[in-house]
Design the sequence.
């Protein structure tokens, strides 16, 4: 701003002088308003961080919904109900093997070709069915078509009017085989419309073709079998992110370490702010009882935080100043003098580690939707620490070892909860907030620093149920 | 006594104690500035509060090339102008060439308390008030004012002329009253 020439008027000059240094105290409550707004802005910073966790949770729920939708879509075709091929094949094998002795000699054995024909129309065979049968002479020899049709009609009637009938002395299949077969193939729904889309594996296996369904309890035959409500053994992938604080502090006793120390230096101070952490890994879970589980696995984690320090070093040879950070402990200190400054500077700390957690869990709710609380310990192997000044001029990478302050093996306590939803018989998705607290300092005992990290993470894991 | 440098450093660290000290040191002067640009106590306090928040947020960008008070004062003025801009958008300033400048004789402000002067300034129409403050008290040129407020230089000059005329009329009345009392 350039002041205009005041020679234009005595008028302006007078006004300017009148207000020069003029004061009027504002009301006493104004500072409270300012203080409240400052506090609100500071909490806004944390609210932004919280938003990240909310977005993570929303993403997890969205993923769960997508996976659920995919599962529902693949489970329910537009025309009928599909079971996994393996289930049907198992059912067929079971039926075949158990019924084999009596089936082989029977003229009522139906092979897959006949099944194919039968699928097209069962209750009232059409000319195409006739062709299907008549076109296969070997089949004709083995199949008594009217018998098969009769059996199916019988079955159809039984499904429509589920009544328990007297067992027949000619039954050749054990009860459970028939039931599993009927369940697996959703006989209760079969009619022209539903039979059409069924796969060859389905249909009427020799066992079904021959079996006398008398005595089979038909109650609930039409009910679709849902996924198992419990997981006994599972393996999964997990991703998590959250806040991280390495809680660094210093003893301030740097005097013996450096060639000189500025006598006028103020007290060395170091502090860290809350940073971010990400982890990815694999997990295993084993149910030990109805409620108890053990959890294990391994995780790779990257943690980052900003550290503020008032310490700096001066190189005696070239008088260059450099930031004093924890990784600088490996420097040749004989040429460095130690100083502190009134205006602290900041640098970024990045840690990479592999964790092997072991936890015990307890199911508060166990079912398709489960809720578990867990606690345990984790052995954390520090891979490396990277310190970078915020202006990018200093970068120091250090691995645990003799020349560094870092410990290779560290321990953490774990505490968390897990809400999981079983998407299908084999898959489940879980949302997993957890808290990790360091049980020892990441630095060794000879270091002038102490760093006991903690983190609050929110993650989700996708499990494959092995048993 | 804490120096400005120490106050700035403390505020840079976000230390509430230093923020309070900075506020207590300068709030009275800055409040007077805010009052000159507004018409009510409440409005002035709103501007001061908003300006102080800006000061604390941006104090890391403060360079010692300018005086701390000058820097803070400019923040208060800019905040006040932002408030005024919304008013000026609703009631844009126009040239006021055909003013009847009835009383052009110079009247001294001597003997008038700053509170009275403040009331006179606050009694001016919005546009006149802003331009009078910027030109007569802050010392900006009409070109600068025109740029700051997005108006023409001519409008700034005419509005200032009007402000000056109105103030002189009011001062004249006060003057006459004073003589009358005497």
Sequence:
């Amino acid at each position: 701003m350039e002041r205009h020439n005041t020679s234009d008027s005595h008028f302006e000059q007078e006004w300017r002088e009148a207000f020069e240094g003029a004061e009027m105290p504002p009301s006493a409550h104004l500072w409270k308003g300012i203080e409240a707004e400052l506090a609100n802005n500071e909490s806004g910073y944390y609210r932004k961080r919280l938003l990240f966790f909310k977005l993570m949770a929303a993403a997890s729920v969205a993923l769960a919904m997508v996976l659920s939708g995919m599962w529902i879509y693949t489970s329910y075709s537009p025309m009928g109900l599909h079971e996994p091929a393996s289930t049907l094949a198992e059912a067929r094998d079971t039926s075949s093997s158990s019924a084999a002795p009596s089936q082989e000699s029977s003229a009522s054995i139906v092979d897959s070709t006949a099944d194919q024909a039968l699928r097209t129309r069962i209750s009232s065979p059409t000319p195409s069915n006739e062709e299907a049968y008549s076109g296969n002479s070997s089949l004709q020899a083995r199949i008594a078509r009217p018998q098969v049709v009769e059996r199916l009609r019988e079955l159809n009637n039984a499904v429509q009017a589920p009544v328990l009938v007297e067992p027949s002395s000619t039954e050749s299949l054990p009860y459970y085989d028939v039931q599993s077969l009927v369940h697996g193939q959703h006989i209760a729904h079969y009619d022209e419309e539903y039979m059409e889309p069924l796969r060859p594996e389905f249909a009427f296996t020799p066992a079904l073709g021959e079996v006398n369904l008398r005595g089979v309890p038909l109650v609930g035959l039409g009910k679709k079998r849902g996924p198992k409500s419990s997981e006994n053994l599972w393996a999964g992938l997990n991703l998590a992110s959250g806040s991280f604080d390495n809680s660094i502090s210093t003893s301030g006793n740097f005097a013996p370490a450096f060639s000189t120390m500025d006598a006028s230096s103020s007290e060395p101070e170091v502090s860290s702010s809350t940073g971010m952490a990400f982890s990815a890994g694999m997990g295993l879970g084993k149910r030990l009882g109805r409620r108890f589980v053990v959890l294990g696995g391994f995780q790779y984690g990257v943690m980052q935080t900003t550290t503020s320090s008032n310490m700096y070093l001066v190189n005696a040879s070239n008088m260059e100043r450099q930031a004093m950070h924890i990784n600088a402990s490996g420097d040749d200190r004989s040429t460095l003098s130690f100083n502190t400054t009134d205006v602290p500077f900041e640098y970024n700390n990045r840690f990479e580690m592999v964790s092997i957690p072991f936890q015990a869990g307890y199911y508060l709710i166990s079912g398709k939707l489960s809720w578990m609380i867990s606690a345990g310990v984790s052995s954390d192997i520090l891979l490396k620490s990277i310190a970078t000044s915020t202006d990018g001029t200093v970068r120091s990478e250090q691995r645990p070892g003799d020349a560094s302050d870092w410990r290779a093996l560290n321990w953490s306590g774990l505490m968390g909860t897990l809400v999981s939803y079983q998407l299908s018989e084999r898959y489940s998705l879980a949302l997993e907030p957890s808290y990790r607290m360091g049980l020892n300092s990441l630095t060794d005992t000879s270091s002038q620093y102490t760093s006991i990290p903690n983190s609050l993470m929110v993650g989700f894991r996708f499990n494959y149920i092995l048993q | 006594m804490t120096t400005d440098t120490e106050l700035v450093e403390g505020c840079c660290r976000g230390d509430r104690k230093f923020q309070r000290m900075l506020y207590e040191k300068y709030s009275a002067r800055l409040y007077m500035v805010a009052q000159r640009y507004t018409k009510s106590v409440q409005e002035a306090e709103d501007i001061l509060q908003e300006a102080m928040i800006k000061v604390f947020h941006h104090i890391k960008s403060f360079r010692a090339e300018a005086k701390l008070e000058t820097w803070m004062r400019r923040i208060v003025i800019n905040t006040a102008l932002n408030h005024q801009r919304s008013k000026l958008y609703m009631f844009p300033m126009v040239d006021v060439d055909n003013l009847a400048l009835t009383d052009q004789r110079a009247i001294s402000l001597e003997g008038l308390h700053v509170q009275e002067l403040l009331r006179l300034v606050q009694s001016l129409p919005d546009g006149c008030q802003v331009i009078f403050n910027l030109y007569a008290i802050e010392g900006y040129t009409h070109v600068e004012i025109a740029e700051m407020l997005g108006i023409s230089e001519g409008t700034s000059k005419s509005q200032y002329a009007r402000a000056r005329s109105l103030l002189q009329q009011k001062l004249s009345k006060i003057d006459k009253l004073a003589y009358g009392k005497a």
The two ends of chain A are 78 Å apart (CA to CA). Chain A has ten helices and 14 strands. The first helix of chain A runs from residue 10 to 19.
